[in-house]
Amino acid sequence: AAKRAGGSVHCFYEADMANDAEMQIALQRDLRHALDHGGKGLELYYQPKIHAISRQTTAVEALIRWHHPTRGTVSPVQFIPIAERFGLIGALGDWVINDAFRQMRQWQKEGLRMRVAVNLSMHQLRQNDLVERISKALREHRIEPDLVTFEVTESAAMEDTQTSLRMFDQLAALGVRLSIDDFGTGYSSLAYLRKLPARQLKIDRSFIKDLQPEGDSYAIVLAVVQLAHALGLNVVAEGVETAEQERILLQIGCDSLQGFRYAKPMPAKRLAIWAASEEGPDHGAPLGF
Ligand code: C2E
Ligand code: MG
Ligand code: MG
Ligand code: MG
User: Fold this and answer.
1) CB distance 252 to ligand 1 below 6 Å
2) Which of 60, 127, 230, 265 is the most buried (most CB within 10 A)?
3) Ligand 2: distance of its center to the CA of 223 in Å?
4) Domain EAL: where (predicted)?
């Protein structure tokens, strides 16, 4: 790689870059192969969102995992950008949407009526036929639109606001819900936020991580919760890990909680068992367990 990077002197930086490019090409080839074979190796995990007071599971968020044949489990943080760069995000997004809906239907047959949140990337929002494809998938899997939420990051929602807004309005017209993900890391104007047909706002994990009484994050989280409530949105805190974070979030009036403290993302089968178990929604553990 050093030779290819030019010269006889070892240049680790360039060598790494070359490796990185090779790695990306290898991954995109493998991902394409997986998508050509019905999503072989891809799996959706599900992480509960818990109502802060009732402790009921209000929804589960679908988070993709890739069990790579030789590299082990590859993180979506790594392969979603590759899918975007190599034109695979449309096919990958379709796979996610269809597999999530298939799973919802399966759970319903087992007597579990679960609200499911699906992440959409910025590149997916740029696809003209996204709404059509979602509409088709809803019909094919016979899913009530009201049980489906799409999570869009604040920064994606703020990109090309005219187009995004039109897209969100079309999605809302289908009857699905919209959630603004990773809130606090983008730069949304209040005027635009008010126009969005969103139902939910998710506070980015970075603010929850640093949450302490009287810290900066405390002030930000409090302000975000108040803003969201003023706009009629419910608020989810993401990445809740400790009892102290939970205590503060309850005090601030955050509506729902999501994080390793309650449950990690898990395969669909395990989620169903979890939902029916002691820890699950209806038999919920008391506050502050
Ligand atoms: P996100 O939508 O903000 O998802 C939250 C991430 O935080 C997930 O990482 C989740 O596993 C992790 N998380 C949840 N609770 C905790 C906690 O208490 N502590 C810590 N340290 N982490 C926690 P994951 O699954 O690796 O996903 C990362 C990102 O990849 C997601 O961020 C989302 O932007 C993207 N992504 C995942 N699945 C999909 C998908 O199906 N489609 C698209 N377009 N993007 C996806
Ligand atoms: Mg999300
Ligand atoms: Mg998030
Ligand atoms: Mg995130």
Assistant:
1) no
2) 60
3) 21
4) 24-279
Is 96 touching ligand 1 by the criterion CB < 6 Å? yes
Tokens of 266: 């898990």
pLDDT tens, the chain, 289 aa long: 334 444 444 445 555 555 688 999 999 999 999 999 999 999 999 999 999 999 999 999 999 999 999 999 999 999 999 999 999 999 999 999 999 999 999 999 999 999 999 999 989 998 999 999 999 999 999 999 999 999 999 999 988 888 899 999 999 999 999 999 999 988 888 888 899 999 999 999 999 998 998 889 999 999 999 999 999 999 999 999 999 999 999 999 999 999 999 999 999 999 999 998 866 555 444 433 3
Q: Is 265 in the pocket of ligand 1 (CB under 6 A)?
A: yes
Rounded distance from Cα 182 to ligand 3 centre (Å) = 4
Q: Is 119 in the pocket of ligand 1 (CB under 6 A)?
A: yes
Enter the ipTM: 0.98
Interior/surface letters 179-216, b for 16+ CB within 10 angstroms, e for the rest: bbbbbbebebeeeebeebebebbbbbbebbeebeeeee
pTM of the model: 0.92
The Cα 289–Cα 262 span in angstroms is 10
Angle between the N-to-C axes of helices 243-252 and 216-230, in degrees from 0 to 180, rounded to the nearest 10: 40
99 lines ligand 1 (CB under 6 A): no
Ligand minimally distant from the alpha carbon of residue 42: 1
